[in-house]
Design brief:
The chain has 450 residues and is of the alpha/beta class. The protein is built from 13 helices and 23 strands. It has three domains: 201 residues, FAD/NAD(P)-binding domain, CATH 3.50.50.60; 107 residues, FAD/NAD(P)-binding domain (3-Layer(bba) Sandwich), CATH 3.50.50.60; 112 residues, FAD/NAD-linked reductase, C-terminal dimerisation domain (Enolase-like, domain 1). Bound molecules: flavin-adenine dinucleotide. Flavin-adenine dinucleotide (FAD) binds next to helix 1, strand 2, helix 2, helix 3 and strand 4.
Length: 450
C-alpha cells in the first residue's frame, strides 16, 4: 500500500493496514501528522487554550483569588506550539516506525495506476509499485484573488500561530466554524475583533438557537459584527488594513484574517493522466472510499466529505480494513457521516451530533426535543460559568437518540456521550439509567434524557 499524505487520514490508514499485515509506504512532503498537527486542529486549539487561560485569570477575583497578570508572551506561545507539534509528530512517527511502515520524505505523484513516484528533497526520485494507492493529501486555505495575503497583516489561518506582532484589531472574514474560532482566539488574547458575516447569522449552517448563543457572547465581549456584508477588497496602508464590503461598509484594523474555506491539494498528483476522476480538485469516492479506479482510494479532506480530522482518521482506518479484505468478511460498518460529532472551540463551546432540530422540522419529521440549561447546575455554578444548555433530539415513539447539541463549557467533551448514543442506537432511557459522576456538567444529559 502506498499512501500519499501523512495527515490523520494517511497515518491512521498506514497504522491499521500495517497491523493487518500490509507492506506500507507513506510519502509526506512536510510533517507526519499533516496540516492537522501543523496548521489546523492542534495549533488553533492550543492558541485557544492560551486565550481561555488568560480569560480565566481575568476572572480570578470572582474565583476568590488575588488578581494575576495575564499578558501574552508571543515567544513563549510560539515555543509552546512548537513543543506540542513536535511531541505529536514524535508519537505518530514512533508508532509507524514500530509497525515497520516506511516513511518517505518527499512529494508524491502517480505515473500510472499502480506506480507512485516520490521526489525527494535532494531532487532525486524513488519509484514504488502499489497494489493499493491511498490519496490523502488534504486541503489548504482558499485565498481569493482580491485578498493580498502577505503573512504579515493580511493572514491566512496558517499565518496566525501566532502572528509576528499581536494584533490590536483583527478583521476576521468568514463566519463559519474556523472564522468564529479565530474571533474567540484573538478576542480572548486581548485584540479588538470585527467579524464580517456574509449572511444574517454567524455559523449559517448551525441551529439558529446555538448560533444566537454565540452571537450574544460575541456582542457582550465587544466583537463588532458586519452582518449581511461580503468582503470584496483588502488594502494595506502602512500598518493599517482596510477591508471594503459589497454593501459599502468599511472595516479598518491592524490585521485581516481570511477564513473563507479551503481548496483540495490535488495539483501535482497527476490524477488526470492516470484516469482518476476529480470534481473541482476533490476525488469523489464510494462508501468504501474507492475512487472510480477501485484500488485507488481517497480519504480525508481530499475526498470532499466532511472536512474533519476525526472523519479523516475513520476513513483511513476503513480503507485499510476494506483493502485488506476485512469488510468482505462482514466485519465492520460503513461510515455514517451524519453521526460524526463536531465542535466549535469558542467560549462557550458549541458541539453537536446527528439530526439537528432545524433539519427535523424542515423535513417534517416528528421528533422529541428536550432542553436543559446549565444555569441551575451545581457544576456550572462551581465553574462560575452558567452559560449554555444541553439539547437532546429523540424519536418520540422509540426513545432512540437521533442527535443533540450542547452549548457550554466542555461541550466538545460532553457531546461524546450523545455521539456514542446516536452511533449505537441507544435510547434516552439508556442515558437516564446511567449513573454519572456528581457534580458534573454531564448530569444535564441525564436530566434531559429523563
Ligand atoms: C484552522 C483549522 C482548524 C481545524 N480544526 C479542527 C478541529 O479542531 N477538529 C477537526 O476534527 N478538524 C479540524 N480541522 C479540519 C482538519 O484539519 C482536516 O479535516 C484534517 O486535517 C484533514 O486530514 P487529512 O489527512 O485529509 O489532511 P491533512 O491534515 O491536510 O494532511 C495531508 C498531508 O498531505 C501532505 N501532502 C499533500 N500533498 C502531498 C504530496 N503530493 N506528496 C506528499 N505529501 C503531500 C501534506 O503535507 C499534509 O501533511 C481544522 C481545519 C482548519 C483549517
Amino acid at each position: 500500500m502506498v499512501i500519499i499524505g501523512g495527515g490523520p487520514a494517511g497515518h491512521s490508514c498506514a497504522s491499521t493496514a500495517a497491523r493487518l499485515g500490509a507492506d506500507v509506504v507513506v510519502i509526506e512532503r512536510d510533517t507526519i501528522g499533516g496540516a492537522a498537527h501543523l496548521w489546523d486542529c492542534i495549533p488553533s486549539k492550543a492558541m485557544i487554550a492560551t486565550g481561555n487561560a488568560r480569560q480565566f485569570l481575568r476572572r480570578s477575583a470572582r474565583m476568590g483569588l488575588a488578581e494575576v497578570g495575564s499578558d501574552v508572551d508571543l515567544d513563549q506561545l510560539r515555543d509552546r506550539l512548537k513543543h506540542i507539534e513536535s511531541r505529536l509528530e514524535t508519537t505518530v512517527r514512533g508508532l509507524l516506525d514500530s509497525q515497520r511502515v516506511e516513511l518517505v520524505d518527499g512529494f508524491g505523484r502517480m505515473v500510472d495506476a499502480r506506480t507512485v513516484v516520490a521526489t525527494l528533497p535532494d531532487g532525486t526520485e524513488r519509484t514504488f509499485h502499489a497494489d493499493v494507492v491511498v490519496l490523502s493529501t488534504g486541503s489548504r486555505p482558499r485565498i481569493p484573488e482580491w485578498a493580498p495575503a502577505d503573512g504579515e497583516r493580511v493572514l491566512s489561518t496558517r499565518d496566525a500561530y501566532p502572528p509576528s506582532v499581536m494584533p490590536e484589531h483583527v478583521i476576521v472574514i468568514g463566519s463559519g466554524v474556523t472564522g468564529v474560532e479565530f474571533v474567540h482566539m484573538f478576542e480572548s488574547m486581548g485584540a479588538q475583533v470585527t467579524l464580517v458575516v456574509s449572511r444574517q447569522q454567524v455559523l449559517p449552517q448551525k441551529d439558529p438557537e446555538v448560533a444566537a448563543a454565540l452571537e450574544e457572547d460575541f456582542l457582550r465581549r465587544g466583537v463588532k459584527l458586519f452582518k449581511g456584508a461580503r468582503a470584496e477588497s483588502i488594502v494595506r496602508e502602512g500598518n493599517e488594513v482596510i477591508v471594503s464590503c459589497d454593501d459599502g461598509r468599511i472595516a479598518r484594523g491592524s490585521h485581516a484574517l481570511l477564513a473563507i474555506g479551503s481548496v483540495p491539494n490535488s495539483d501535482g498528483l497527476c490524477l488526470d493522466d492516470v484516469g482518476v476522476q476529480t470534481d473541482h480538485g476533490y476525488v469523489p469516492v464510494n462508501n468504501h472510499m474507492q475512487s472510480n479506479i477501485p484500488h485507488i482510494y481517497a480519504a480525508g479532506d481530499l475526498s470532499g466529505r466532511l472536512p474533519l480530522s476525526s472523519v479523516a482518521t475513520m476513513q483511513g482506518r476503513k480503507i485499510a480494513e476494506h483493502a485488506m479484505g476485512l469488510t468482505a468478511r462482514g466485519n465492520g460498518r460503513q461510515i455514517d457521516y451524519d453521526k460524526a460529532a463536531s465542535a466549535i472551540f469558542t467560549e462557550p463551546e458549541i458541539a453537536d451530533v446527528g439530526l439537528a432540530e432545524i433539519d427535523a422540522f424542515a423535513e417534517g419529521r416528528k421528533v422529541r426535543v428536550t432542553k436543559v440549561p446549565f444555569a441551575t447546575h451545581a457544576k456550572a455554578l462551581i465553574n462560575d460559568d452558567p452559560r449554555g444548555f444541553v439539547k437532546i433530539i429523540s424519536d418520540p415513539a422509540t426513545g432512540v437518540i437521533l442527535g443533540g447539541s450542547i452549548v457550554g463549557r466542555h461541550a466538545a467533551e460532553l457531546i461524546s456521550v450523545l455521539a456514542v448514543a446516536a452511533t449505537n442506537g441507544l435510547t434516552v432511557t439508556d442515558i437516564h439509567e446511567s449513573m454519572l459522576v456528581h457534580p458534573t456538567l454531564a448530569e444535564a444529559l441525564t436530566e434531559a434524557a429523563e
